[in-house]
Amino acid sequence: MADAFDVVVIGGGPAGENAAGRTAAGGLSTALVETERLGGECSFWACIPSKALLRPPEVHWMARHSPGVRESVKGPLDAAKVLARRDEMVHGYDDSSQEKWARGAKLEVVRGHGRLAGPRKVAVTLRDGSTRELTARRAVVLATGSRARIPDIPGLREAHPWTNREGTGAKSVPRRLVVLGGGVVAAELAQAWRGLGAEEVTLVQRGPTLLNRLEPFARELVEKSLRESGVTVRTKAQATRVHRAGGKGEVTVTLDTGETLRADELLVALGREVATRDVGLETVGLTPGKPVEVDEQLRARGVEGGWLYACGDVNGRNLLTHMGKYQARLLGDHILGKQVEAWADQRATPQIIFTHPQVAAVGLTEDEARERGLPVRAVQVGLDSVAGTSLLGDGYEGAVKLVVDEKRRVLLGATFVGPEVGELLHSATIAVAGEVPLDTLWHAVPAFPSVSEVWLRLLEAYGL
Fold first, then answer.
1. Positions in the chain whose pLDDT score sits under 70
2. Cβ(226)–Cβ(181) under 8 Å?
C-alpha cells in the first residue's frame, strides 16, 4: 500500500529542507526523502567545510598585518587543529542533528533513493533494498541538487581525482596539489590548501582569467593574491591527459602547452551537473540528465496538473545555496496557496567568494548591464579611501564598484573586493532588490569610522 502525504520532497539538502519545512509549518503532511545526509552538499562537502578551511589562513594573514599583534604571531598555522575544527563544523559527517530538526518540524524522514514513478508518485528504494511507494495529494518537489562534473579527459577518472567533496574533506594536507578549473571552488580550495601548508599548489585554467563572471578588477585582485600566497596560476592551459598508476600515488597531468605537472593530489573543479539522471523524469515526460525547467512559481514546465516543482541546483536557474533556499520558501508558499513569483534569483543574486581578499557581489556586472542594452554608468573607488580600512591593519587592498541605471537612478549591481567585505554585501543587496533611488541612498548615512563609509565615497564619485 502506498503512503499518502500532501507533499513529498525528494532531496534533503538546504533547498529540500526549506521546502519541506515551509509546507509542514503551513499544516501540510510532508515527507522528506534523502539518500545520503540531511543537510546535503552545502553542510558537509561545500559551503560549511570550505569556509572552515579558509577562515584560519585569513585570520592568520590579518594578524600578521596588524601592528602590535604580528609581533606575537609565531610560526605557521596548526593544520591538524584546523582540520579538526572543520570536522566539528560538519558534525563529524553525522546528520543526526539535522534529522532531529526534521522530526521536530513534523516531517516524515524517508531514508533512501527517491524516484518519480508517474504523476504524484515517488518510489523510494530503502537502505535495506525494499521499496516504499509514496503518493502526493498536492505536490512533489524535486531538490536533488547537483554533482561535480568530471570531463572526459583521458585517464582522469582512473586517477580518482578529488572533487569538492575530497577537496573539503581531506584528512591531511597534500604536499603538492594541482587544481583544474578557474571558478569559485578552484580559487577557494587552491588558496585554502596553500594556506594550510601545501608546498606546491598549481591552478590550471583554460581561459585567460580566473573567475570570469566577475568584474575585471575583482578577478585581477584575487589572482594577484593567489600568486602572492604562493599559488602558481596557469591560464590559457588545459589538461589533455592524466596518469596515476593504480589510481593512487603520484599523479601526472599533461597540459596542451606540452608541460607535465606532478602532484600528490589532483582536484577537479570544472563545474557542476544537475542530479536528474536517475530521478524518474522520464515517467512524467521530462528528459533525464537535464535541468528541470520551471516557471516563476517553480513549477516544472511540461507537466500536466502543475503538481511537480523543482528548486535549487536541479532547475539550473541559480546554483547557489541561498538562492535554492529562497526558491524553496517561495514554492512552499505557492503550494500553500499564496500568490508568489521568483525573481531575485535572476536579478538580485548575492554571492560571496571567501578567498582572501573576499569578493562580494550582487546583481549585474557592468558588462552584463551593457549587454542588456541598459543605460549604464559605473563608479569605482578604492577601499583605501576610507579611514576604517587603515584601522584594520597594514597592507589591506580592495575596491568597490557600483553599476547604476542612469535612467531610473537605481543600482543594477555592486561588487566589493577586500578583507571581510562579505559583511558589507547585504546593504547592496537591499539596494538592488529594493531598487532604492540613489537620492534616497544619500540619506543612508554610514557610521564613521567603519569600512561601510565607502558607500559615501561611491555616491560622491557618482556626483551626489
1. 1-2
2. no
